[in-house]
Amino acid sequence: MAGLDQSSQGDDSSLMSSINITPFVDVVLVLLVIFMVTAPMLVKDILEIKLPKTASGDGQVVQTLGIAVNRDGNILLNGVLADDETLKSAAAQALAKNSESQAIVSADVEVAYGKVVHVIDLLKSSGLNRFAVQIEHESKK
Prior knowledge:
By secondary structure, this protein is of the alpha/beta class. The protein has 3 helices and 7 strands, in the order αββββαβαββ.
């Protein structure tokens, strides 16, 4: 064994006894960034809401309350199943914190018009008059 280095022959003191975690931290941070970027895009798909499409809309709404009505007519408040009273109390609490509170109402295209009007009526009866209806822009052909 003439080609071997003297220090690698049975010398236990030359073994590295610590773990380099820098590559691990780098990978974890990259995965975190990927999840942070993709999470908002997945929320709409998870709730299974197909938004109606329009050719106009400004998209400049500050979101305070996120209200969704899914295909089955269930009301979701910030992604959590809610009933009428919960929605009214959440709107009243939001107004108590900030008088400029707003809500974004998202409804599946298959939801009955009356259900969306009912949700808007609940918001207005609790004093929240600033709301927007979320839409998707149609692709121009």
